[in-house]
Write a structure and sequence with these properties.
Structural class: mainly beta
Radius of gyration: 24 Å
Oligomer: single chain
Largest sheet: 6 strands, antiparallel, barrel
Strand order of the largest sheet: 4-5-6-18-17-7
Length: 483
């Protein structure tokens, strides 16, 4: 039996779960009378062991240290001006390494020591920004990627630049594309650099992930090799850690069944499941040391200003994938990821078993045939946290959580979080990590954004009801499954 459950932190209204006929797995959701709340469950038959879903789709995971190299700028919003500190942030990577980033979310706050994850553009505001590629061009043609400031100043015709003014000018140019902001650097040379960067920027493709596994979950029958799980990386080599439970006999192999301990970009990994293995699940992890590509987005695990990578030291990156197997019946593989184009979370259920299973949304049933995959996009409110867990007997559990941060505040209605210049500056979001001096406020910093913790937060639906987008496809047995 598989089930998924979630609850709203700010509402006493909860969805109900009603398991129905045997031989099915289903996702049941009930919408509150206000049309603002949804809770759901996925239910079915079969057994499974504990299964921890990867919390990260792969790449670098880091903690924000604060704004480190910056100068002044002025943001004009609805005729009101605000002094800002514009420049480079620094992050410390879990496992080792340092990152330098710029902000692409001018009106939103940063949170002290916020955790960030390397994130695809389509799961951030860059996904719907036609100028996202120009931001990457700016990063590649300015400080700190170009650390010869005399040469940069000569090329841009700015006059002398310092690290602080070069960082400020670069940030200002980025804001003009990321937030469509009316912002100018205080320093004349920094402002000239911002103008030159904006005027010369060209569209550049999104950089590939430093490390990812595709798909993040697979399923199938015991006695088979489940996969492939394809490695995507810019590192020359990655290490492959096998499932922790060696007693199960599950191995990580290549297509021919040869055990694998290292891999490279494009390598295909398989879970080799013994024929007599009890129904269950396992996970593999890959890890590498590499420089994260410039232009990768970093999104906060909690609500915190979205960042874009400007520079990386040699850094530890990792990714994980899971496999679920059974002797017979429906055998689902479950993944979830943010979908900014649709304003929600894609929950994908693949079925590699020999029976169909059905899930239900707001009273409507949908059947996933054996060998097929179905994705349901569950709407989530902008800036809302979500946290839902798929559970089953024997300790089976997969948890998917995050914050849907797909827009900059400047593109939404209801005003912004900026301060006018004649008001007291807000406290810096980084605490002691960076002092701005005078009346300069750290970019977008504010105490108005609470961090919701200690409770499971449901998927919040905007408007008077829930709309679910469904798509089906047959899983190709010879190629990677959808993650």
């Amino acid at each position: 039996m598989f089930s998924a459950s979630s609850a709203i932190a700010s509402s006493s209204t909860a969805g109900t779960v009603r398991p129905r006929s045997r031989g099915f797995a289903r996702l049941a959701a009930s919408v509150a009378a206000s049309g603002l709340v949804i809770a759901g469950a996925l239910v079915g038959t079969g057994t499974a062991v504990a299964d921890e879903a990867p919390q990260h789709q792969g790449g670098a995971s880091a903690v924000l240290d604060g704004l480190k190299t910056y100068d002044g700028a002025v943001l004009t919003t609805d005729g009101k001006k605000q002094n800002l500190a514009a420049g480079l942030f620094e992050m410390t990577v879990e496992g080792g390494g340092k990152l330098k980033t710029y902000c692409i979310d001018i009106h939103n706050p940063t949170q002290d020591q916020a955790k960030y994850l390397e994130t695809p553009w389509n799961q951030t505001s860059l996904g719907t920004n036609k100028d996202a590629g120009k931001i990457r061009w700016i990063l590649e043609h300015s400080y700190p990627q170009v650390d010869d400031l005399a040469a940069l100043a000569d090329q841009a015709g700015t006059g002398p630049l310092t690290e602080r003014t070069a960082a400020a000018g670069t940030q200002v140019a980025i804001w003009r594309y990321s937030d469509n902001a009316d912002v100018k650097a205080n320093d004349p040379q920094a402002e000239k650099l911002a103008d030159w960067l904006k005027d010369n920027a060209q569209d550049v493709a999104e950089p590939k992930a430093s490390l990812a596994l595709d798909p993040a979950a697979v399923s199938g029958r015991s006695g088979e090799r489940l996969g492939p799980v394809t490695v995507r990386t810019n590192a020359g080599q990655v290490s492959v850690a096998p499932p922790a439970d060696s007693a199960s006999g599950v191995k990580v192999t290549d297509k021919s069944g040869k055990p694998v301990t290292t891999a490279a970009d494009g390598s295909e990994l398989y879970f080799d499941i013994p024929a007599g293995a009890a129904d269950g699940s396992a996970a593999l992890t890959v890890q590498a040391t590499t420089s994260v590509p410039v232009g990768r987005a970093f999104a906060g695990v909690t609500k915190s200003q979205t960042q874009i990578l400007a520079g990386s030291s040699e850094t530890t990156v990792s990714a994980a994938a899971t496999a679920t197997w059974a002797k017979k019946g429906a055998i689902p593989a479950i993944t979830a990821k943010k979908d900014c184009a649709k304003g929600g979370v894609d929950v994908t259920a693949g079925n590699e078993g020999d029976e169909a299973f059905t899930f239900e949304l707001a009273g409507v049933k949908h059947t996933v045939e054996a060998g097929a995959t179905e994705t349901v996009t569950v709407p989530v409110g902008e800036d809302q946290a979500y946290n839902f867990t798929i559970t089953g007997p024997g300790g089976f559990t997969k948890t998917f959580k995050g914050v849907l941060d797909c827009k900059t505040s400047g593109t939404t209605t209801g005003g912004t979080d900026t301060q006018t210049v004649d008001q007291p500056a807000p406290a810096t979001a980084g605490g002691s990590s960076a002092g701005t001096g005078g009346d300069l406020a750290e970019t977008g910093s504010s105490s108005a954004t609470p961090v919701i913790a200690g409770v499971a937060i449901a998927l919040v639906v905007i408007g008077g009801g829930a709309v679910f987008f469904l798509r089906k496809r047959k899983t190709q047995s010879s190629g990677p499954s959808a993650g």
